[in-house]
Amino acid sequence: MNSISVRALLVRGMLAGLVAGVFALVVAYLLGESPVDAAIAFEESNSHEHGHGGEELVSRAMQSTAGLSTGVLIFGVAIGGIAALAFAVALGRIGRFGPRATAALIAFGALLSVYVVPFLKYPPNPPAVGDPDTIGQRTTLYFLMILLSVLLTVAAVTLGRRLAPRLGNWNATVAAAAAFVVAAGLAFAFLPSFNEVPKGFPATVVWEFRLATLAIQVTLWTCFGLVFGYLAERLLTPRTATATDGKGAASRAAAAAN
Amino acid sequence: MAQSVAPATAAPAITPISLKAIAPWALFFGVLMLVLLYFVGAEQGATSLISGENVHEWVHDGRHLLGFPCH
Which range marks the domain in which residue A155 is found? Predict the structure, then answer.
């Protein structure tokens, strides 16, 4: 394994991220835009002094289509690239998992540590929710929470690998997961929280918006894991297994079953 | 254990890619990817490298729906 395969993994990761981004974009458009529109309608009917003023730089039609696409697709490519690098490190180091299973674990771990855990502490807010004066603090703490959660995940995986020879794989994994939960819980307890939902803002809009953001991330990481796993398996499985498709598929299925 | 039962060719242990080979890619592309995430997630919100509101307004919906604090 040389740097050529790192390059090949990186390219495939970004490609898989782009494909996953397309699926996430569809979910974002179908589920996410209606709570965003509802929130903006609330903002316009309620705010007298602030908000975004009279003239808008980018129209709502552009924001909800081309703008949304730009954001989600760039996000997909970027997380795909980073996840491919994480995959390159994790492959062969986290246990006896093949490329496809490693890709699935990386995607699941990333969904949890990059999104779900920070989401539980700092849930995303639709437009009109959030005090502009605290945006700096909220952004810093959100990124800090992501960083902390990723570091704790790496620490938990390392701990699990260390404990495995003594406790066995199952118990070591449970112990490492429990340590992660305790550490994340401590972070939740000690980091400051924000509740900036304005009076009268419909609770269902907040709920629908947050659920939509979760659906987007679940879609993104699931598609990434599946597509990247397929590409990585094809790249890294020795050619003898893939040469003849029928036989190759059978032997790979046997390999996957073990 | 399980390995002794399985055929020797079925589940070969995968050799890890050496960290030395990954490092340059991780450094350059890792940073590049993080810069992309910064522009989608935070530019012209909490901090601004480019003056104005165009980047913020353009990625507005994406930023909200991807879970970043927007404004």
Answer: 132-196
Give the number of domains in chain B: 1
pLDDT recorded at residue A248: 47
- Hey, are the CB atoms on A70 and B58 less than 8 Å from each other? yes
pTM for this one? Answer: 0.87
**A52 in any annotated domain:** no
User: Does B51 touch chain A if contact means CB atoms closer than 8 Å?
Assistant: no
The pLDDT of residue B9 is above 70: no
> A with B: how many residue pairs have Cβ under 8 Å apart?
177
CB contact under 8 A, B62 and A28: yes
Query: Is the per-residue pLDDT at A9 higher than 90?
Result: yes
Q: Chain B closest CA to A207's CA: distance in Å? A: 13
Among the candidates A196, A213, A247, a domain finishes at A196
Last residue of a domain, one of A173, A196, A219: A196
User: What is the ipTM for the molecules in this complex?
Assistant: 0.85
Contacts 24+ apart (CB under 8 A), A234-237: A235/A5, A235/A8, A235/A9, A235/A12, A235/A99, A236/A5, A236/A91, A236/A99, A236/B14, A237/A98, A237/A99
